[in-house]
Amino acid sequence: MEKIALPKGTRDFGPEQMAKRQFIIDSIKKVFQKYGFQPLETPAMENLSTLTGKYGEEGDQLLFKILNSGDFLKDASQPNLEARNSKLLTPDISEKGLRYDLTVPFARYVVMNRHEIVFPFRRYQIQPVWRADRPQKGRYREFYQCDADVVGTDSLVCEAEIILMIKDSFKSLGINDYTIKINHRDILSGLAEMIGATGNESSLFVAIDKLDKIGEEKVKEELKARGFNESSLPVLFETLNFQGNIQQKVEWLSKKMTSSEKGKKGLNDLTTVFSLLQTFGSTDEHVELDLALARGLSYYTGCIFEVKINHVAIGSVSGGGRYDNLTAVFDAKEKSSGVGFSFGIDRLYDALEELNAFPKNTTTSTTVLITHLDEGSFPFALKIGQAFREKEICCEIYPDRLKIKKQMEYADRKKIPFVVVVGPEEVQSGLLTVKNMETGNQSKLSLDEVVAMILDFNSKIFKHK
Question: Which residue, of 2, 15, 112, 369, has the fewest CB within 10 Å?
């Protein structure tokens, strides 16, 4: 018999994992809603014509393609079949693909629904995406993203608010040690001008984006292989390696970008964003101007972001930026500036696990278990359980007739905080025996008193979360 297994790069999530993931999603969703973002969902699959050409050469190679239904080879041309070349054959056998991210489908949605949308349009989207990447720690082939985008405005207030939303989200998740890296594509274009690489910016951005993954020497080798002049590389890396705080880096760039209009615009945008943060009453704490930040995706045109949680063995947990031309690729008349960012749920989950930072009661779904001592007590137990549910208290009634010890073990294994014991004495007196499973304390209380106690417990848990 064939061994049962999951496809590489995918995972099952049991109840405990789902509770923790839901904690992350709920925390981020509340922040998105606080800033006026509305929910949106798009299909898991898109036409390949929608997806290809939007992520750069490397991104296109990571698209999961879906075979046409039925006899997918019937329309394939014989020369393409004989060539044994997947790029030639793909248009014959595949018209659709799984979405690579949530931004391109969002841009497609905006163009298709432009007459119904109120601009500026703020949307958040929390759905899975798929990439044919090499699975490794923190990198999966199927993973969830939490996106928030604004389209229809070029105001830099949006960039400042992204930083605020990231800070608010980490506060909700209980993460205090992190870095929000920011740069601007025009600054990188200015660097390209400085080294005589105008027109070859895309290759430069892709190579620089690998700097923290493969190191400076490997990046230099890649740039030389892509045709960059070796004598210009010291000038490039002098800037990329410059150390200092935000103000020192701004002053450095001001001197270097005097002859680059693009570079000066990028620098002006960044200083405006930092100024807006101060106006909002925030500081540049946790914010770093990273001159080597490039973001590999080709559709970014302005400010770019990347977020890392410090001292964990996980890569970036969030990233994004401004894109001025993404909607125009679907309709040249619909050029709308947009900006957004995304959290990776799976990486946040792994980071919180590594930090042991999930709140203690995250995985608690049932607050109280109703147990029963005998058949005669069971109808009363059912009524008590329903009374709890009418008060919005998550409640289970143990369904089988087992010894009370077995019922208690069930509550302990599921980490249920309270157990109500119903027997002949409770039925006659109306007072319930309540056990706190953490402390072991047991008391006799009326139904109203038990409800009040549990609601108070829940309110403290909710406040902690």
Answer: 2
Q: How is residue 243 annotated by DSSP?
A: -
The tokens 């989200």 sit on which residue?
Answer: 169
CB 347 within 8 A of CB 374: no
Query: What confidence tier does 462 reach under pLDDT thresholds 50, 70, 90?
Result: low
Report the distance separating Cα 389 and Cα 387, nearest Å: 5
Q: Are strands 121-130 and 38-39 parallel, antiparallel or unpaired?
A: parallel
Above pLDDT 90, what percent of the chain? 63
State which fold the 368-464 domain adopts.
Rossmann fold (3.40.50)
Q: Domain boundaries in the chain? A: 15-63+100-355, 368-464
Class of the 15-63+100-355 domain?
alpha beta
Query: What is the SS3 assignment for 281?
Result: coil
pLDDT in tens, 82-97: 777 777 778 778 899 9
φ, ψ of residue 387 in degrees (nearest 5)? -60, -40
For 378-399, the three-class secondary structure string (H helix, E strand, C coil) is HHHHHHHHHHHHHCCCCEEECC
| C-alpha span between 82 and 78 (Å, rounded) | 6
